[in-house]
Specification:
There is one protein chain. This protein is α+β, with helices and mostly antiparallel strands. Helices cover 41% and strands 14% of the residues. It is built from 6 helices and 4 strands. Strands 1-2-4-3 form a 4-stranded antiparallel sheet, sandwiched between helices. Helix 3 runs antiparallel to helix 5. The radius of gyration is 23 Å and the shape is globular.
Length: 214
Amino acid sequence: MKKNILIIVLAVALCAVGVRMAYDRNAAESGGDTAGDGSADALECIMTRYSLRAYSSRPVADSIVEKILRAGMAAPTAMRMQPWEMVVVTEQPLKDSIAAVSKGTAMIKDAPLVVAVCGNTNRFIEGESAAGGGFWIEDCSAAAENILLAAHALGLGGVWCGVYPVDERVEHMRRILNLPDTIVPFNVMAIGYPEAAGAPKDKWNPSRVHYNRF
């Protein structure tokens, strides 16, 4: 009797080990925890993201850049137009020139990676224009935020620097990045590994929440 019980216990233990090994293998292959829906990780990433303005000299691997850009292009988009174009900048002279776009963009010179999100007028919804606005602005905003969140999730950080709709900044970026007339620079983001740890700002304000009516 005792022998049978011991066999059953050993069998259960082996099954448990097998399940755990399979779980660990699946988690490793998927790049994360496969047990949950990932909502806790997503919320943590959103709530802990902050604007990073001081970067280390550590370069950003091409594989990481692609992950960040893929996240950007996973953003929602009106009528599936996907109007975005993304310009990746790593050359120092270009970064120096971009940093001159406004007083608040000096950190771009020190960032190992710069991403400019632009709108392609050939993929605007009919009736939209670069001058008159449109849903392309929302689409590019969603893509840019995804990029910042993905960077933070991967251990990097970034900061959003506005370009559109300030005409002077738009023309400045057009010249630097050699953009054709059909491409409208929307924003530019400095991205890299933090030189020192930062902290997010608590922006929660329940007085800004309204239910059913204002």
